[in-house]
Write a structure and sequence with these properties.
single chain; 404 residues; 2 domains; six-stranded mixed beta barrel; 13 helices
């Protein structure tokens, strides 16, 4: 143990006496380790943020729809009785509604703007996690009487009227050339998602009863798909399976692939898989810099062996064993890479925190990643330090003493 302490002490003295060279040697390790830490931490933070955003927006949502390309060529439509049956017989369902989106233009006090109208039954309210902050959502009475009422987001209200105090005002909606006035009865908070802000280019977003289409626009909308909102993502698979089975039994199409399902959780799994592949690829690229840094350590240690050849000869002439010389040089390479690794970890953690803070996601530092990076930097020092250390240890004392 005492000998090991002496080796470490000598290695630290040599590193200290060549500060500039040691720092430059560490640079490759620092860049490699910090890159790996930053990429994995930022990737985990972004993935966690995206999952959180998607869960808040559509976690636990399921679409069941009629597969128009079924082998039997059967054509069916869902009914209001089907919706009632789903809500009564399938546990953990919060709401069921047809859901249709229509692009159009919308006119308010400040002018006309492009946007979209989402239409369905009152259960459509739960398709978005943002609460109603003013007024109310449309109800069953509004739906069954085809009342021309609507709910706007806060941003849409400001766009159309310059304020969110718009309850009772009217919005003129132009959908496929048909123009109708809608009375605003509610305002929805619209801080749902940074992600949806990137994906959704609509200026105005409006929600209203689907029955208005047939009563006032003359559009016939087939009910061949239903949006089911479960009580949470943990119930989505169970709700999806039981809902499809119930609809197949009600329409006598069991086992005929007529009714299909889309579970939003499955899309989230695919997104996570893609993000994982991207992270692995970028980490692999960053790991190349670690290899380059390791080669740098080996080159510097070879230079150190050449510079200290006469010292090695004197030590061996005085009785130093081959193993002692080997451990001395190996300790120096390991210390250099370990110090570089620790500095790289600090830079990587700080960099990940700064980047995640700048893009609005919470940084996720994985302890296993930090420990793995530390062990990997030490392994690089050992691997690339073995050759120079062995070269120093195998020097002939006589030849070393002759070296100028």
């Amino acid at each position: 143990m005492t000998q090991l302490y002496e080796y470490v002490k000598i290695a630290l003295m040599n590193i200290k006496s060549n500060k500039g060279r040691s720092v430059l040697t560490m640079l490759g390790i620092i860049i490699g380790i910090s890159s790996v830490i930053m990429i994995i931490s930022i990737g985990n933070g972004v993935k966690g943020g995206i999952n959180g955003e998607l869960n808040s927006l559509a976690g636990g949502q399921i679409y069941i729809y009629v597969n128009q390309e079924n082998e039997e060529g059967l054509e069916i439509e869902f009914t209001n009785d089907d919706i009632d049956a789903l809500q009564e017989k399938v546990p953990h369902i919060k709401a069921v509604t047809p859901s249709w989106g229509f692009p159009g233009s919308f006119t308010g006090r400040r002018g006309t703007f492009d946007g979209s109208a989402s239409m369905g039954m009152p259960g459509l309210q739960y398709s978005n996690s943002d609460p109603i902050v003013k007024g109310r959502y449309f109800n069953d009475n509004d739906y069954y009487t085809a009342n021309k009422v609507c709910v706007l987001t806060e941003g849409s209200a400001r766009t159309l009227f310059g304020t969110t105090n718009v309850l009772g005002m009217e919005v003129e909606a132009n959908l496929y050339g048909v123009i109708q006035d809608f009375t605003i009865i509610g305002i929805r908070q619209d801080n749902a998602s940074k992600l949806m802000g990137l994906l959704n280019s609509d200026t105005v977003s409006m929600e209203c009863p689907l029955s208005v289409l047939e009563a006032n626009f003359g559009f016939q909308v087939p009910m061949n798909d239903l949006l089911i909102i479960s009580d949470g993502p943990m119930y989505a698979s169970e709700v999806a399976e039981k809902s499809v089975r119930l609809m197949e039994n009600r329409h006598n199409v069991r086992g005929q692939n007529v009714i299909s399902v889309q579970n939003f959780n499955d899309y989230m799994g695919q997104i996570n898989q893609i993000l994982n592949y991207i992270t692995i690829f970028v980490v692999f690229v960053a790991a190349i810099s670690l290899m380059v840094g390791g080669i740098g350590v080996m080159n510097i240690m070879l230079v150190s062996v050449t510079e200290r050849t006469r010292e090695i000869g004197i030590r061996k002439a005085l009785g130093a064993r081959t193993g002692s010389i080997l451990l001395q040089f190996l300790a120096e390479s390991v210390i250099i890479t370990l110090l570089g690794g620790l500095i790289g970890i600090l830079i990587g953690v700080a960099g990940a925190a700064i980047v995640c803070g700048a893009i609005g996601f919470r940084v996720s530092i994985n302890l296993a990643t930090v420990l793995g990076a530390s062990l990997f930097s030490s392994a690089v020092g050992i691997f690339f330090g073995i050759y120079p250390a062995r070269k120093a240890a195998k020097l002939s004392p006589i030849e070393a003493l002759r070296h100028e």
